[in-house]
Amino acid sequence: MKLILILLISCMILPAFAEDYYYFQEQKLSAVPEFCIIEFEDPQLPGAPDMLYQITQNAIQEWEDKLVRHTGEKDGWDFTTKIISQERYDDLFSQDTCDVTIYFEREPTTQEERITAGHTYAMWGSADITIFYLEPVWVYTGQTSSINGDIYEIADISHFKNSLDPYNDETIKHEIGHALGLDHYPATTEEITKQNGIYLAPSIMTLSEDDFMIDRMEITDYDIRSLVNLYGEDGINEPDLWWVWDVVFYGLIILVTVLIVKRKFSKKQSKLLRVGSSESKCIRCNKDLQDNSNSICSECLQKDGFGI
Superkingdom of this entry's organism (predicted)? Predict the structure, then answer.
């Protein structure tokens, strides 16, 4: 009776502690990632590349440190980082795996990305990140919003300064979160906390209607729990079953295509061999024979009795 009572209490209590997690386009890395930072130059900001390389390496290390600290597991979260040239990345014989590739651009080039600080595209257990690193200049639109009694005026980007965005570190951590598999966290107004006059987001992945009033975003315990829920306490150790089946499926398609092409080629070759055999027999035919209807050469002789 006591055991049954404990089980009933557990069933009632556990759902209250359940969390909602948000994942990015079914993205999961297929192996402990190697991060490749692609080298770039900026003649207008000569010091920008080295500064951004360091910020990126620090962001990757922070994700790793917090995951290892939370799980006690090192191997499954043992991220590696390297800085390589675009030529080396494009080399088909390169030994770099580059599970996550990070590019830097001064500013967005399309209208759709105008107010975007970065974006991530993920596929086949890997991801590409692009960071727009110049500091935007915001202008007020005349629209306002009220958060916890405070009135905020909504702003939009007019242009970009020739200087680094002071929030590049947050953007890079956020995009790495996408590469690892996390989607945006739809924070409510109540979840945006205020400490020492600074508004803090509940997740580095926060994106909500109130995100304009957030002063700071950091990798939080919630973000770490989300990744542990996605990969397990042991980390990113083995290819996921869905990824393996995708490889098998597309591999079979390629194999069947090759076999069909090979079969058609073999039939063509066989036909050529048969024609060649008939021609050799035609050469030995009596060239003076005018009626070849009953001849072995009938299908390959022209009217003059010569072989084709």
Answer: Archaea
Residue 98: other Cβ atoms inside 10 A:
20
Give the sign of the dihedral formed by CA 230, CA 23, CA 18, CA 62. Answer: positive
How far lies 90's CA from each of 52, 98, 105, 174, in Å? Answer: 22, 11, 18, 26
Distance (Å) of CA 170 to CA 59, 96, 118, 167, 198? 8, 27, 11, 5, 15
pLDDT tens digits for 192-210? 888 888 888 899 999 865 6
Three-state DSSP state, 53:
helix
Query: What are 1-36's pLDDT values in tens digits?
Result: 443 333 333 333 334 456 899 998 778 999 999 999
Structure tokens, 240? 């996921």
33-46 b/e (C-beta count within 10 Å ≥ 16 → b): bbbbbbebebeebe
Question: Which domains occur in the chain, in start order?
Answer: 20-133+164-239 (3.40.390.10)
